[in-house]
Amino acid sequence: MTEEKQFKNLDWTMARTVILAIIIGLMAALAAKILLLAIQLFITYLHPVPLDQLAATDGATLSLLDVVGMCGLGLVVGLLTYYLMPNRANRGLSHIIEDIHFNHGQTGVKEGFTVGLISAVSIGAGASVGRYGPAVHMGAAAGSGIGSLFKLQEQEKLTLACAGIAAAIAASFSAPLAAVIFVQEVVLRQWRLYQFIPTAAAAVAGSELAQVLGVSFNIPSGAVPDIVNTYEFLFFGIVGMACGAVAIAFNHALPKGVALGAKIKIDNRLKPAIGGLVLAALGYYYPAILGLGGYMTTEAIAGNVALQLCLILLVLKFIATITSFSFGFNGGVFGPALFMGAMLGAAIGITVELSGIPISSISLYAIAGMGAMVAGIVGAVMAAIIALIEMTGKLSPTLPLLFSVTCAYVVIYLYSQSSLLVRQLNGRNKNPFVEIKAHDKKYEGMGSN
What we know:
Structural class: mainly alpha
CATH topology of the largest domain: Clc chloride channel
CATH architecture of the largest domain: Orthogonal Bundle
Strand content: under 5%
Oligomer: single chain
Radius of gyration: 21 Å
Number of helices: 19
């Protein structure tokens, strides 16, 4: 084949991949919308009072019907997982990374959308999990399915799976730039132009359609000040270090909790039903910790949550998230990480303010905490910073986020800790980044994230 013909084939291949990536981006946004509608259906119609309304009502507690509904939906989760999931076990973002590196990006379409269904029922049952992880799973499945449908080469299939991941994140957060960076930083850990371009196209398509469909989670820009006092960076550093410590604890506790749950000698079909009862006990007086927790996250950003309540919700959300995964519920960790980061950041901001030191806004402390917590738990350092900036639509959080995330990673590296995803991959002896580091001399400083 002549050199000219090779370039022509390369041009056509790239054009074809970009076109398919855009289609996948639109599919991922639609899938994210369907997932959100399913969650709202379960939360609204299977509880006497929708969980998000219950969280917004002062002094509200769970009713007996709520408890019965949580256990009943838990049973549905157990049955769906047992009869529909591969190996009768839940799969998450770390499994997607495993598919990208060891299975040429092949994620089963049935598996991806089953994960979405199980996650929607889990959240409806009050499980403390997020909707962003399942959306990513569905996006990857869409990309993989399109690649198989057109019988593309393995490299193109892998690229389209990455495009689906990016599109799902962009659709969920209105953060296309952060989505592209996430794929390169967390999923691939390598920068390749032929992967970057289709991934970017899918992220833009997914983000734009998500805006029309009303899918994404945004931070009201009115709560974010334009000016930050210089001396406050000391406190943003404290936010980062505190988030780093909580992230380390969470990254250790979650795999151990799941391992302990696996040892409980109860039929796996029944475990989520029992988990629903445990979650009902945890969230009886504080229903804000159940489900997505988006309302209380927004309230923390707005500075409307008292110090004591911030700390209580932080601890209960930590326990509820580990409980949810340990008893077989499925979902993501993005949402709980954002919730815990907002509570911890807001708590530190309130403490500083109560000490008599003027601060710019509680919102900046909550946002800094969200970025630091997501970076510490997921390992998405740059993506977390960019995502929060895109979600606020302002540049003023940039420096607080940078400093908080930096301080979080000082703590994480000081104790030689890994992100949750890497710990999960290591636990299955499926960590692809060790091999990448061994064969790529440019790959430095990322092996433990």
